[in-house]
Amino acid sequence: MGQEPRTLPPSPNWYCARCSDAVPGGLFGFAARTSIFLVRVGPGAGAIPGTPSFRVIGELVGHTERVSGFTFSLHPGQHNLCASSSDDGTVKIWDVETKTVVTEHALHQHTISALHWSPRVKDLIISGDEKGVVFCYWFNRNDSQYLFIEPRTIFCLTCSPHHEDLVAIGYKDGIVVIIDISKKGEVIHRLRGHDDEIHSIAWCPLPGEDCLSINQEENSEPEIPNGKVIAQSPVTKGCYLATGSKDQTIRIWSCSRGRGVMILKLPFLKRRGGGIDPTVKERLWLTLHWPKDQPTQLVSSSFGGELLLWDLTQSWRRKYTLFSASSEGQNHSRIVFNLCPLQTEDDKQLLLSTSMDRDVKCWDMATLECCWTLPSLGGFAYSLAFSPVDTGCLAIGAGDGMIRVWNTISIKNSYDVKNFWQGVKSKVTALCWHPTKEGCLAFGTDDGKVGLYDTYSSKPPQISSTYHKKTVYSLAWGPPVPPMSLGEGDRPSLTLYSCGGEGTVLQHNPWKLSGEAFDINKLIRDTNSIRYKLPVHTEISWKADGKIIALGNEDGSIEILQVPNLKLICTIQQHHKLVNAISWHHEHGSQPELSYLMASGSNNAVIYVHNLKTVIESNPESPVTITEPYRTLSGHTAKITSLAWSPHHDGRLVSASYDGTAQVWDTLREEPLCNFRGHRGRLLCVVWSPLDPDCIYSGADDFCVYRWLTSMQEHSRPPQGKKSIELEKKRLSQPKPKLKKKKKPTSRAPIKQELYDGNEEDSMRESAGPVENGSVSDQEGEEEAQGPELPCGVASAVSREPVICPPVSVGFEQPKVTVNNKVTLLKKEPPKEKPEALLKKRKARSILPLITSLDHRSKEELHQDCLVLATAKHSKELNEDVSAALEERIHLGLFTDRATLYRMIEVEGKGHLENGHPELFHQLMLWKGDLKGVLQSAAERGELTDNLVAMAPVAGYHVWLWAVEAFAKQLCFQEQYVKAASHLLSIHKVYEAVELLKSHHFYREAIAVAKARLRPEDPILKDLYLSWGAILEKDGHYAVAAKCYLGAGSAYDAAKVLAKKGDAASLKTAAELASVVGEDELSASLALRCAQELLLARNWVGAQEALQLHESLKGQRLVFCLLELLSKHLEERQLAEGKSSSSSYNAWSTDTEGPLVERITAVWKSAFSLDTPEQCQAAFQQLQNIKYPSVTNNTPSKQLLLHICHDLTLAVLSQQVASWDKSVEALLRAVVRSYDSGNFTIMQEVYSAFLPDGCDHLRDKLGDLQSPATPAFKSLEAFFIYGRLYEFWWALSRPCPESSVWGRTAHTGTSAEQSQQLDNASPEERDPQSSQPESSRPPEPDRRLTEGSEQMLNACKELFSEKHACLQNSQRTVAEVQETLAEMIRQHQKSQLCKSTVNGPDKDDPEQEAGQSGSSSQSPCKEEKNEPVSLPELTKRLTEANERIANFPENVKTWPFPDVLECCLVLLHIGSRWPTRVTQEMQQQAKELLQKYGNTQVYTRYCQTFCM
User: Fold this and answer.
1) Measured CA angle at 1093 (ends 1090, 1098), to 5 deg
2) For 627-716, where are the alpha helices, taking DSSP H only?
3) Among 120, 159, 610, 651, fewest CB within 10 Å belongs to which?
4) Confidence (pTM)
């Protein structure tokens, strides 16, 4: 595919009249989200022969919001220029060759909705916006013209191909106008007829109106006067115009007459295998293309994605031809938005279409058949998975609610993609193929759904009846565990495990997904008798053999569990943030032990690799805690989201990160190999091709999946510093999420559909992020998006806890909203306050206002009142007149009987209610004595008050209880939860009050109430502590969370949560807490972690204080003490390894008198009371159980020093108890570590400090030559002589920087590295001629040589160990043969791949060239000899070498030895310069060893140099 990576791009933007275009010669561009993607079409695309001739060649990046328009310049000589408009308010002109902006303008004040490059004027770009404003922009002279024709929303505009001043504009309400821009936008014609949105305008390619034989009278509409008489000028004369509208019609208009001459009504076609439910009403988009060479034909879109070719010659009948009528499934399955003609270099007439089904299709206009389809993604690429059975089938899970299965090895089609959308209806966040069953694909979604698809059938998926409460993070197939593995009858050999955002891992039975899924936490708790809170799980991964499962957790720990009962055998405390990815090494490598390697990545940027071989094979009784990684891979600058081992190599890993890059590592050497930076977003997933060792696929939140080659990458490691910032800027130039506003019914929805096509909420362990493309904003669009089983309508929010770092844009937007709220509140507050202030000044409102007013009437009325009252009081019987008079004068109730008074109170009460004063009504009722009625009416109205409730006991106990409960409910509605709880407490409803407070997150108040009113052992109290603790922990309030866990009696969890922050102070407090509560093992591990953190800051005093916390760490205190003294020693000698800007040393490290070993033992006695051999033995036993992994050239120096000091501490302790054999072994381990890391300086310092007089005194101490430690001593002595030999050589060869020479010649044990190192050896060693002039050198070096040096050269005989030379030669042979076999397999796979895609290898294929060059560079000797080795010959060599290795005694194989042949070469080199200093006998012995064992590629040419 050439050097460009193969891309699965984002979907073309929806609801835009022109957001894709093409130019003759074969270049097509389409707008997708904020970019424009460019596709080369035709012979120049450089596609693989036999596959469709198109290729995505690049991206135009610069807009910050959705691109709404895109148009090429169709003028000869400037086909490289194009223009784009965006919702960011700019119109940019681009050069596609350089992919840069030539110029831009931001003239529009409103959203741009239409854009076109004039086909007549070279530098004129016309754009229109949704308020009706049109700008003409001449970019060569940077000039512009503002036109405002109609105050309507512009939907599309098209410039005339025949006259440079005419432009046709279509509006939202169906009006079409033709304007003359030379006359300030004067309207030439206003074409009325459509009654809905104008989606497309196409001018007839031929001028004049002779091309169509239309009867002007027939089928035409009455002429619509335009308000003025238009002269028949050449401008208006002669051209047809076609318009397509949402009203389901296409109209042909005559420009000379200014009226419609033909109407084409869209036919309702029977859906042919469409991709959606046919019952769903789908919005229509009617786009047009008038073919240049066929003016009597018109292409249009239709209802369901079909394309129609209309015959315009027969205007009296509707005649059309369907595109791709013969072949099923070739048409789009959703509405089509844009049609672009394209003429290729070989003069083929093509038509390109973009659609809501997210496909770009290319049609041959000669046959009306689909030539090819380019699929695209409408959401984040969350998950990638290659099928282990159907080789080359890549499943892609995306945020647009679809699963895609890409056949990456298809011979005929580079983009052979099948879509699966039924039953998904949500973002697909996890995928996993069944290991053995063909076409069986498990998927998980952001709404917690787990399902199984059969990709070979068209049936909907099976969905598990048990949902996760949050996003499904990961899926894995593994052996069944109880209870699913128990019981009788058939059981599935593999079950499906899913891990969800709420922290649970469920086991699903694939044979019975409708049954209940089981939470494995119950089994883990029961099997391991766990009493503390189980961690929140975030990742799950089964080892390939199905015997071990790894669970990653939110606190950064990883648990290793063993089947069948999930026995916990090991906990890895390495990461201290949420674990995102765990991956086990494959089992088919050349070294079987590599299958025990497990890589893990978290929200920290560091990847750790652990070798679990020892732990798994030893099967410990109680769980082991691992705190040291086997390998550390540092380089990424943001969290790790995905990891994948190469199936083709040993120990090669690829990682995906939020820093926007994918990194390939050689884990065994801790070395970064190559870095891919093609994505414009944060990477979410990565997977290695199962077929091509050079090929990797990655997906990101830029809606892209890239296929890229490791050999083509120019960078070797992730960007740091400025580059990292640039990448972040590139990522931030992506669309920013907009806060959703309520849409007005009149909003211009179709063009600004969700505004924008392409932002989705990020669910990969984040809680906020951009919003997904696919949802439409108006009413009809919502219905469509929510219709059954749509592949695009996904808008649900996902959050993966805990929240780590919400995208910047959200942080910018939210404060604005808050500020606005405050402003509006301030504006509203004063009107509320004024009446209250006025009320205080006024007199209190009267409770009886009506009566009072009646008592202030005229004197006559008052006199009449007196008479009526007197009559009523003194008449024995009231006549009707008096009764009527009393009813009218209700205020007299004060002076007559009770019944009249009640009537008076009733009238007054009604008045208060009508005037909005219920409290006065309540007082009247209270006076009346009807308190129960008052309470009931107040409760119904939600108007209960404290006063009313306080008076409720007057009406009785039960009424009071009822009133308090009703008031509590009312207060809840008013969100006064604490007050409601207090009232519930007043009627002794304690549990209800506590539950009320808890349910509304008033945990502090709930605990206070529960603690005060409930028994101490009440389980409610513990539940409150744990619930609040979990929430505080999630929010990062670790100290308060720890207090909650302590309150709940869960001290273990309290210590764990305190340690979560990971800084030294938190770790120390957590360790102290664990020690106080008796969790000794946890306390020790936390104290050690704290000390290691302080060690990094060179705070020696703090480190010792931390280790003091626990007695079991006394051994570690000795190690840190030795490390401090050694660092001080190195600092005094001004060596880089000991240098530090600010070190806080202990007082006892200041004494620098005497040998280092004596100082160490003296400090141990004085500061650590290490006096007796028993104490030394106990410390030795403590430290002996700690095993550190081997080192590499890339091991950090601080870590290397700590590991070396651990071995040196064991050595000194052994000497204290006179265990000299153990001392020798420990010293050798320290020396070998420095040798393996390539740090010669440290190795020599170890010898000078711990063996200042050489190894003789150790030989005397060991005594018997048959001692078990003798082979270790031989190795130790050999390394001592080896170091002296190099120092002697460098002394002779001054000036020569020590470290660089050592770096070049350092050995790590593998022949490939030895080859590289010796190839790069010093010039003197490499070039035999350089030794010739040395014979005439003045004899200054001789004066520097002492007798000791001569003794040393004689001692070099110890290095000429024939058995070690033979063993090392056999090991080199094995490594070489394995490398050759691996290379042969890679070449075979590549040749098979080439044969399957092309009949015979394609010489132009850069992948193949890369492979050939790679293989040739790896085997120079083979090239020289031109002798290809056969497979049987290689197998024979391998077998013989392994047999030789097996025959060596174990003690020779156990202890490393300097490279014998390397020592021979150095000695011969010294001999060639200073012949008198090396005896002939030694030179002869060295040559014999070289001749005998130098037959591997590494040493062949050196043998030829010295042994000729």
Assistant:
1) 120
2) none
3) 120
4) 0.77
